[in-house]
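Hello,

I think I submitted the manganese (II) ion job twice by accident. Can you confirm which output corresponds to this input? Input:
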Amino acid sequence: MNSILNADLHCHSVVSDGTLTPEALAQRAKANGVELWALTDHDEVGGQEAALDAAQSLGLPYLSGVEISVTFAHKTVHIVGLGFDTSHPLILEGLKATRGGREQRAREMSEQLEKVGILGAFEGALQFAGNLELISRTHFARFLVESGVCNDTNEVFRRYLTEGKPGFVEHRWASLRDAVTWIRDCGGVAVIAHPGRYAFTPTEEFAFFSEFKTHGGQGVEVVTGSHTPDEYVKYADLSLEFDLMASRGSDFHSPTESRIDLGGLPWLPGKLKPIWELIEDRIQ
Ligand code: AMP
Ligand code: MN
Ligand code: MN
Ligand code: MN
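Support: Only one job matched these inputs. Its output is below.
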């Protein structure tokens, strides 16, 4: 295996905030030429068995996956776990605790939106969420589009739900140490998701990468649907500087909302070490 592999190691199903089932995602990945796939729902592994079964019936190599919400330096970051044991109590309990605060947060988001004249957002968002424990900003975004407040989800995140805008509620997620430790102790590798999305100063970013390494983190997404071509270059360099293996994933959520389809990204730059070489033995 080398860097020229259509690996897509980041996407979401209806189990978290995607719009397709794990089975439909597997079929779409296969049809789009994906050669190694992982479903990485937010803070939940409930879709893993269905994803693995569907992938195996299609002859699509599969890695277990999850995307854990983490608070670092008062900001939310995401850590992807790959190739871990999805039935291990340590990760199951850690993810359950991480999901725990979402309902209360969603109620507070709704109260804020009410103050700017948007009524019924909690109930509205809940209609889009399969699982109350996993109600997310994406579900609020779908409600705001559906009810005509915004034209699309991009507009939602420009006007609402983000820091300083109505509907943003500061939240305490898992610690970086805990998230990396759960993944590692369950046999997997931890990967920094879409680093280009965090509004860190250079000093904070350095601290984030350094602490991630200290806790045992081994990878970073370089080519992701969230990065610009300039960011592919920046994070390719940072992955070499920090001696982190590189990952590649579309972060696909929905055929109508996502800019990049499953399997639709450029290759990883050839000078990087692909993360899948480290966990070849965990491909199912
Ligand atoms: P939450 O975990 O509830 O904070 O929701 C985070 C999710 O919201 C992310 O996983 C994305 O799916 C979505 N999201 C956040 N920011 C944006 C954005 N600027 N544009 C589109 N989707 C976004
Ligand atoms: Mn999401
Ligand atoms: Mn993310
Ligand atoms: Mn994601």
